[in-house]
Amino acid sequence: MTAPAISIPARLQETVRCWTSESGQAWLDALPGLAEAYLAQWELTLERVCEPGGQISLVLLVRRADGSPAALKLGYPHPEGEQEHAALAHWDGHGAVRMYACAPQDGAMLLERAQGDVSLRSLPESKAMLEALGTLRRLWVAPPEAHPFTSVADYVGGLREVLTRRRTMPAAAELRPLVDEALDVSAGMLQDSTTRDERLLLHGDYHHGNVLAAERSPWLAIDPKPLVGERAYDLAWLAQDRLDTLAGSPGPEAAARRRLQRLAADAAVDPERLRGWTLFRTVEAGLWSLDVGDTRHASLFLEFAAML
């Protein structure tokens, strides 16, 4: 039986070319050969390429030598994803997909297969938020004693420097008061965080699309960009999920406030810290989107930030 061809999904090609330089094209060119190498090394049989797949990763549905299903993920090398394998190893299947093998030097991981076409986005928002928080609580554990993960403080410090530069973009001229507020609020949050003793392993990119249905557990998280810090930072990305639905709802400003209040109460976090981190993360995402030419998402992010 002829093995399926390894084709690179259009979304992955478009994203890598848009977000990266010439190195991204070189990675895309080498990707089929890299996939073939790990299929052979880990004794895998290819079933099919996931379409549309990840934005910056190639995902192949495979069978292991014993016939069990798995997923081979090959991710574009970027700093935020460098410790994904370490987080998955530490969680060891508790709230997230299990990792069977990894080759961090190539961004390659052999993972438990989840139902890629059934995420929390398939549920009504209220039910999705409830399930999302339940799964996220399982991920909030103490990191290993000698861990490799970046702290929220260090990561946000770098984001603040980039946001300060992007503030001067011509397209951001009218947004500077909002950007300045996000910078001021984040500075205060970082200063105050030195007095807090909440150092938990965070997912870092937690939203409904990164929580998939699975056989071993109703829902499992995928694609972490792990950090160590406070829960409110992790919740902030969940707080701005489904912005297109929120923007089209009656009274979106009141709906945004209610969403944050419910999340803060359900997770037992300080509502002002959740609001502050949500404001910062959403403004940062909005200006990043502007910078890469994604005006649709930039508009959604920045409209939501203004509601806060």
UniProtKB/TrEMBL annotation:
Listed GO MF terms: kinase activity; phosphotransferase activity, alcohol group as acceptor
Superkingdom of origin: Bacteria
Gene3D superfamilies reported for this sequence: 3.90.1200.10
GO biological process: secondary metabolic process
One Pfam assignment: APH_6_hur
Keywords: Kinase, Transferase
UniProt-listed InterPro entries: Kinase-like_dom_sf, NH2Glyco/OHUrea_AB-resist_kin
Keyword Nucleus among UniProt keywords: no
Protein name according to UniProt: Streptomycin 6-kinase
Source organism: Streptacidiphilus jiangxiensis
